Amino acid sequence: MKKILIPLCLVLGTHMADAQRSYQFGSPERLFTEGKELFNLKNYSGCIDKLEAYKAHAADADLIQEADFMLVYAAFEQGRPNADELLKSYLETYPDSRHTDVVEFLIGSVHFGQKNYPKAIFWLKEADIDLLSPEDQEAYSFRLAYSMLQVENENPEKLQQIRQMFSRIQQIGDKYRDASAYYVAYIDYANGKYNQALVEFDALKENPEFKEQSSYYTTQIYFIQNKYSQVIKEGERLLDTYPNSNNNTELYRILGNSYYHQGQQDKALKYLSKYVSEAEEPLRSDLYLLGVCLFNNGNYSSAVNNFGKVVSEDDALTQNAYLYLGQSYLKLNDKNNARMAFEAAATSSFDTQIQEAAMYNYALLIHETAFTGFGESVTIFEDFLNDFPNSQYADKVNDYLVEVYLTTKNYDAALKSIEKIKHPSVKILDAKQNILFQLGTEAFTNMKMDEAIDLFTRAIQMGTYNEEARSDAYFWRGESYYRKGEYGNAISDYRTYQNNTQQKGTDMYALSFYNLGYCYFKQQEYDMALSRFRQYTDVEQNHAAASYADAYNRIGDCLFQNRQFAAAEENYNKASQILPSAGDYSVYQKGFVLGLQKDYNGKIRTMDQLIREYPESQYIDDALFEKGRTYVLLENSSAAIQTFNKLISEYPESSLARKAGVQLGLIYYNDNQPEKAAEAYKQVISTYPGSEEAKVALQDLKSVYIDLNDIDAYAAYVNSLGGNIHLNINEQDSLTYIAAEKLFMRGDNEGARRSMQNYLKNYPNGAFSTNANFYLASIAFNLKEYNEALPMFEQVIASGDRKFLEESTARKAEIEYLTEDFKAALETFKRLNTIAENPDNKEAAALGIMRCALKEGNQQDALTGANQLLKNPKVSPEIANEARYVRAKAYMEMGQESKALADLKLISQDTRTAQGAEAKYLLAQLYYDANDDKNAEKVLEEFAKNGTPHQYWLARGFILWADIYIRKGDPVQARVYLNSLQKNYQGDDNITEMIESRLAKLK
Questions:
Q1: How far is CA 348 from the centre of its chain?
Q2: Is the whole model's pTM more than 0.70, yes or no?
Q3: Which of 250, 293, 347, 353 is most buried, judging by how many CB atoms fall within 10 Å of its CB?
Q4: What pLDDT is stored for residue 7 in this prediction?
Q5: Secondary structure (3-state) at 493
């Protein structure tokens, strides 16, 4: 029997009335009966009072159990917060109650009301539906089905079971019939049975309770079925009818999508914008569509913002979004970010058409921007052709590929890439020839002459694909041969270059004559040298060049060798006028020529000019000696003595000081001052023991003592010298040594070595022991037997024989440097710098001081060496750059960064060298440290644009660039640079650690 439903107000009213009634005098049974009547009338408040009063006096256990059931039922109906606890307590108290199934149903219903659907399912399934009232059976079925729908909605089999449950309710139910019909339709929708769901939702459209939702899901189904016109019709009607509905955010989404697919992007933009602004987490696909609409509408900044939110997963949508991101950045003229977006799309393979378009755009941007310089500028086009050989862009890519080969700075990567091509075109071969030439110049700039010669030779051997590169390769191969002292090969290449080049007015063409002149000059072919130097001065247009002034010096030297003294003087004058700052050699040679022409006073004036105007010149000691000799010729003994004494006191290590000492003795002897003559000769002997001048002085001293008639004193003096000077050379000693020396001079090093060793064995203190030690040391040095050579050179130095002092000191320093004993080498190079008269040794000494001091962290000595090298106008460009690099590093170590700027700016102009590349980075770092981010970025932009084969320093530059963005508060851009560097840099060094540390901080 169905229970009669009583309105809640009536129930409440009855309860209030009953509450006023006194039950003080009723019997317990009467209270139970009244309570049950009120319970059946659903007057739960009234029945609770009666039943509680009954229980206070009752003794019948069955009636008490029944009363407790009605009480917990009433608590459920009243919606008490603790109803489930009361119901569960009842079951624990009365486990065998006939009301168990009803109570379990009620507990499940409590959890249902609390939306705790797993517990609701549990308790509802505990109850037996057949033992419930028909009304409760319908509620039971609906609540169980709904709870299962909430919990099992992703299980197709369960959904089908749940649908059947709702379907039965729909067929036989009363209260939940329409609700069940709605959920049947929903489950069909969820299972993809859209046509069936459409019919079911349509049947509910007149039901006010389900009209909106049915219409909403109908619109959703039309959208899923791509029936965009019907979506738009239904969606617009729903928005008009329910302007504040919770469904509207989703309606904006599907309307925007539908208008987009209908080609109405303005309306799509309107609705998608509303959707994105209202949705807590907009769908990536809709952010993508909104981005497309914004892009097509010209709003590229907003498009970038939307596409940037799409690329969070690795899928086809992200690939498409990256392609649009690249196009958007291009429209905003942000080529760096465009390049990285295209790169991301190109490295994804979900959609090959998108990949192709992205890779093509990426390649073009690499070509235009040379963004990183880590090899991709050459290889990207080849990768494209390998991946998409039949692409519509293939012809354009081939053309660009040739252009990339010609413009890239990472020629090594370009060459490796070209050599992978099985059938290169003529354009590619043209590019390859030019790349080989460029690699040769890189090797030359880095002073790798053998490597440079090999690369230039390969370029030459390719033929005439690129005539200019082939012609220039002859010039630079000639330069390489010249630096190695292979003058014959250098002459051949310079002459071939002159015959082949079409560029007759260039600096290089002019220099080829200058270099040819030097090749002949080094070989003492003075007539040929004279002709070439004159040709050079005829074609050289830069008359302020150091080489132009030097050429006139060499012309003067050639004329001097031909004894055309007046003409030689004229050219020396020209040289000093052209470059006064480096005119010391010209002035000295002019004075020397004047002396040969017997213009002694003119010679003295010229030598004084040299001493006065060039106080640091390497020719000062020469000038003093020649000046002293000239005074001797003028019979001005006092002036000669004064000049020679100045030379000896100021330049005691010079070989001319020894000669001056002998000259002093001779002057005193000729002036009949034997005591002073003897004193002068003895000074030479004691100061320079073992030298040729000491031997001469000892012979001349004998004449002085003969004139003094004091041979005994001479003998005593000679005996006091011990074995330092050999006056009487044993014939066998002499013959044995001469035989060994002849073998050495003929180039028979093995024979010479055996003979020299035999000589020293027989004559360990022989007259030629120093010579023998020097030659043996030289042989060992050439064989790189440094452990054997070093002690012999040291023995030569200790002997006091000045004949081989300079060369032995030079070789000792070189051995110490090569064996990385930089501390000892530094001191030896300093000694060499003091005694060296050979310009090459003088330069080697300064270079050694600079390099060793740098290794030892001795910044002051490093500066000294660098400054000395840079004062030499003839120093090679490579050494000059190294000196500027060392000087800049020294200044930075000493905290004098401002002094380093000029050098860094100069050497950073050529990033082909490791020093130039490092200087570029250091220059940017100095600006960064000074908080001058604008100039730091400018330097880094130049670095990235020009490129370098020295990838480490370019990578350091990119890390610094990221640091700049971090300091600017732009971590996104910083991460872009770091990610790009992490992907493209191939070096095995500390760059990876630097990248990871910064990325970690950014996270």
A1: 24
A2: no
A3: 293
A4: 30
A5: helix
